[in-house]
Task: inverse folding
């Protein structure tokens, strides 16, 4: 898909915003409203991405980073095992792999008994949306049998394009703009993204 078509498709993409950051009374107890907010699906999702945690391969250009966290229930504390986490993102040049059998920069993985997931991948680049660059981002689709499906995006703290992006600049996206941290003294980078799902009613 070329960029012009992407822009047209993007304008038609549905998105919704959930409440975030409130504390409210549910069943006579007060709970934080930690639910992860939605973002646009975008036009580049492909089903049938391979099950893998390591999206890198020898010779691949880019800065390697581990994206990890937990998938939790709406009570903000209960881990959700066997939640399916799908991610996809562009390469360092801002291009998505939309047709190759290699499914570059695309993967899915189920959370373990502690609700944990992790992927080893590279930091994505940026691409034009009209005359503006979208900030670097990783798309997420998360499904779990008792939860509502989440479609969202992760952004990176300090990205200069967040402010002008129609989606990343929303108040609801703030909890998804995350720092890239040094994980150890070897220089390995990590982003921790805990995901809170809303229970099916
Ligand atoms: Fe994207």
Result:
């Amino acid at each position: 898909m070329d960029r012009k078509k992407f822009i047209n498709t993007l304008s038609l993409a549905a998105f919704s915003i959930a409440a975030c950051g409130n504390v409210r009374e549910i069943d006579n107890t007060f709970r934080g409203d930690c639910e992860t907010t939605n973002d646009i699906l975008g036009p580049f999702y492909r089903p049938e991405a391979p099950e893998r945690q390591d999206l890198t391969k020898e010779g691949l250009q880019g800065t390697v980073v581990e994206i990890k966290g937990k998938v939790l229930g709406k009570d903000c504390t209960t881990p959700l095992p066997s939640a399916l986490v799908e991610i996809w993102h562009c390469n360092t040049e801002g291009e998505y792999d939309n047709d190759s059998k290699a499914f570059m920069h695309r993967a899915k993985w189920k959370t373990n008994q502690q609700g944990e997931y992790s992927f080893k991948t590279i930091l994505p680049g940026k691409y034009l949306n009209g005359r503006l660059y979208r900030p670097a981002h990783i798309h997420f689709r998360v499904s779990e049998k008792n939860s509502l499906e989440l479609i969202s995006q992760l952004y990176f703290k300090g990205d200069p394009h967040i402010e002008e992006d129609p989606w990343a600049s929303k108040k609801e996206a703030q909890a998804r703009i995350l720092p890239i941290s040094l994980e150890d003294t070897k220089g390995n980078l990590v982003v921790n993204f805990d995901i809170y799902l809303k229970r099916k009613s």
